[in-house]
Specification:
With 504 residues, this protein is an alpha/beta fold. The protein has 13 helices and 14 strands. The strands form five sheets. Strands 3-2-4-5-12 form a five-stranded parallel beta sheet, sandwiched between helices. Strands 1-14-13 form a three-stranded antiparallel beta sheet. It is elongated, with a radius of gyration of 25 Å. The N terminus is likely disordered. InterPro entries: SGNH_hydro_sf. This is G-D-S-L family lipolytic protein.
Length: 504
């Protein structure tokens, strides 16, 4: 049984976002000369995570590093006395890392994704960048993919994160120590807080919301960071960067569930004909009847009201139709646990529009758990596990943490006179009406929107150019520079939305 994903037909369309092509104006405008205002760009250091590094298409590779927003900014800062800007470049445009010549067996640190016309992604070749090779030297781009807020100050963090390990000044260095050691006059501190909720989201909420736990050493990799832990780490990072009078830009955290990693796969992708639907409904008849009996028992002993019981019975009753758009069956740990009454009554229901199915489920829903056995279809006969779905309760945990992080970021930016980029608002606009940049309208539709790369999370190079413009706009407003008024915003059309599989 196969599910339908119409967006795959997008390969037949242009990858570029819509071009307005408005060249009607022929008036030559005299622009003022570029000025720095109160900012000193002579030594720029960028601190952040994957967006800062230029991560795209699920990998880090030279082309996107060269089109990272810090590198774009450095070229503009160079016009105002900025110094050289060094980056820890990968070895190639394949992406991915080797560990003592071997790829990770779990598929992590794999080569970049590319759209090959027959599926969403493929692997162009084997990586050549060796994770254990330390680059040496000093790097202005301190973007470390995977870094969470509390990782920035951890000594020896390179042992846990090979992206930092290959560029750290010494094995026991921390990201912040290496950044501050360069004595920056200007900095960007971007997307800090994103990874503090991202792995929870991409894992379908399999982690733990650690709000109230102030010891990050006890956190799992997919857990949500406590807001006080975040605030402590963010304040420490800013305090260190501004200690010698540096000015800078910070960004807030978007609602990451607006990204196409969570919005591309619909909750109802199951096509069934009448005969198949009847067979499946027959198989679920015992479950549906058992739910009614179990709640009748709970009502009888006063454990639940009849009203609440009726609502959950309706929520948990599984019914398929002769339709192209049947909802997938999912596990939901927030349902009333009935297995103590009947071990067969696991906490499952059909998904609704309020649930978010993660992008990797695209290649899983509709497959057979036992090949050749149509009675083991995932999402139909077998419910989707927690890792495939973000339920409304899990989404709410992400939103609450994000709001708390952003309150800290705004407060710290105001207290230190820093420029603030509303990345949250930008993504909200991109995911609804789209955002205008130059001659383009960019949105978050996977492949065709122009803003978000094939992994559904990280930006395209065109997206990073838009981010650079937003940074310059905030710098103008806070420090009195005039990047925009002097015509020095970058043209996003000069930056690609995708890279050829042959680029190596």
């Amino acid at each position: 049984m196969k599910t339908k994903y119409i967006w795959l037909l997008a390969v037949l369309l242009s990858f570029a976002a819509c071009n307005n092509d408005d060249d009607s104006s022929s008036t030559t405008e005299t622009l003022p000369p570029l000025t720095a205002g109160d900012a000193d760009f002579s030594n720029y250091v960028a601190v952040g995570a994957s967006f800062t590094a230029g991560f795209s298409d699920n990998a880090l590779f030279i082309a996107t590093q060269e089109n990272s927003f810090p590198n774009i900014l450095s070229q503009k800062f160079d016009m105002l006395g900025g110094g050289s800007f060094t980056q820890p470049l990968m070895n190639d445009n394949i992406g991915g890392l080797l560990f003592n010549g071997m790829q990770m067996p779990d598929g992590s640190y794999a080569p970049r994704l590319y759209f090959n016309g027959s599926g969403p992604a493929g692997l162009p070749a084997t990586p050549t960048t060796e994770a254990t090779t330390v680059l040496g030297g000093t790097f202005n781009n301190m973007g470390v993919p995977g870094a969470k807020s509390f990782h920035l100050g951890v000594e020896g963090y390179g042992f846990a994160n090979p992206y930092f390990g290959r560029m750290a000044s010494n094995p026991m260095a921390s990201v912040m120590v290496d950044a501050v050691a360069q004595n920056p006059t200007f900095f960007t501190l971007s997307e800090i807080g994103g990874n503090d909720v991202l792995s929870y989201a991409t894992s379908g909420g399999t982690g733990v919301d650690q709000t109230g736990n102030y010891n990050p050493a006890t956190y799992g990799v997919n857990d949500i960071t406590d807001p006080i832990v975040f605030a402590t780490a963010f304040n420490a990072a800013v305090d260190a960067l501004v200690l010698n009078g540096a000015k800078g830009v910070v960004t807030n955290v978007p609602y990451i569930t607006s990204l196409p990693h969570f919005t591309t796969v619909t909750y109802n992708p199951i096509p069934l004909d009448a005969g198949t639907a009847a067979v499946v409904n027959g198989a679920y008849a015992a479950y549906n009847g058992g739910i009614v009996q179990a709640f009748a028992y709970l009502v009888g002993i006063g454990a639940i009201s009849q009203e609440d019981a009726d609502a959950e019975i309706a929520q948990r009753t599984i019914m398929f139709e002769a339709s192209e758009t049947n909802a997938a069956v999912i596990l939901d740990e927030d349902l009333t646990d009935l297995t103590g009454i009947n071990p067969q009554l696991v906490s499952m229901r059909q998904a609704t529009a309020d649930d978010l199915i993660v992008l990797p489920a695209m290649n899983f829903i509709g497959t057979e758990a036992v090949p050749g056995n149509p009675l083991t279809v995932n999402g139909v006969a077998i419910p989707l596990a927690d890792k495939w779905v973000l339920t409304p309760e899990e989404q709410q945990a992400i939103r609450i943490a994000t709001d708390a992080y952003n309150a800290t970021i705004e407060s710290v930016a105001t207290a230190n006179g820093l420029a603030l980029v509303d990345f949250k608002g930008i993504l909200q606009q991109a995911s609804t009406t789209g955002i205008e940049s130059g001659n383009y309208i960019l949105n978050t539709v996977l492949v065709r929107g122009g803003l978000v790369s094939l992994d559904g999370i990280h930006l395209t190079s065109r997206g990073y150019s838009v981010m650079a413009n937003e940074m310059m706009r905030a710098i103008d407003a806070t420090y009195g520079s005039n990047f925009e008024a002097s015509g020095n915003f970058v043209d996003c059309g000069e930056y690609p939305t995708n890279y050829s599989p042959t680029l190596q």
